[in-house]
Every structure is written in C-alpha cells, then in structure tokens.
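W.,

You were right to be curious about this one. When I first looked at the sequence I had no strong expectations either way, so I just let the prediction run and decided to look at it fresh. Below is the sequence, 135 residues in total, followed by the output.
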Amino acid sequence: MTIVCYGDELESGQGLDEDDELVSGQGPDEDDELESGQGPDEDDELAPGQGPDEDDELESGQGPDEDDELESGQGPDEDDELESGQGPDEDDELESGQGPDEDDELESGQGPDEDDELESGQGPDEDDEHEVELP
C-alpha cells in the first residue's frame, strides 16, 4: 500500500500536484508547454498550416490572413499585383490587344481608341490624314 504524504514529489502521470511538471501530451497544466499540433494553448506557437492562431503567419496560398501576401494569380487581395492578362485589376497594365483598359495604348488597326493614330487607308479617324491623288 502506498501512502501519499504532504510534500511528496510525484512523477509525471502518477497524480495531481501543484508543482508537478507534466511532459507535453500527458495532461492539462497551466504551465504545460504544448508542442505545436498537440492541443490548444494560449501561448502555443503553431507552425503555418497547422491551425488558426492570431499570430500564425500563413504562407501564401494556405488560407486567408489579413497580412497574407498572395502571389499573383493565387486569389483576390487588395494589394495583389496581377500580371497582365491574369485578371482585372485597377492597376493592371494590359499589353495592347489583351483587353480594354483606360490606359491601354492600342497599336494602329487593333481596335478603336480615342488616341489611336490610324495609318492612311486603314479606317476613319478624325485626325486621319488621307492621301489624295488629284487627276
């Protein structure tokens, strides 16, 4: 028969003791430092992708995060710089012929543009200089 006396130092897992230092995973303890992924702990530092944590730095593409910097094309982000042709973006500079853009400079003959200078004979333009041969 084992008698438990006041001041008895118990080994981890044998019983409860206010000074008992539990090894991670053996049980709950307010000072127990849990390894990432073992369970919730207010001081638990989770590695990216293991779970939600207010201080968890997610790698691009792993999930939403207000500070997550997404690479172009991975998803919507107010600071996401899209490469031309990947999608609409108010700052997206499109190459001529890829689509409409208020700053898109079209080459002559590709389409209508208020600043498009057409070569003679290509079509109507208010600034188009037509060559005229007089008899």
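Here's what jumped out at me. The CA atoms of residues 27 and 134 lie 101 Å apart. And, maybe more interesting for your project: The chain has a mean pLDDT of 54.

Coffee later to discuss?

I.
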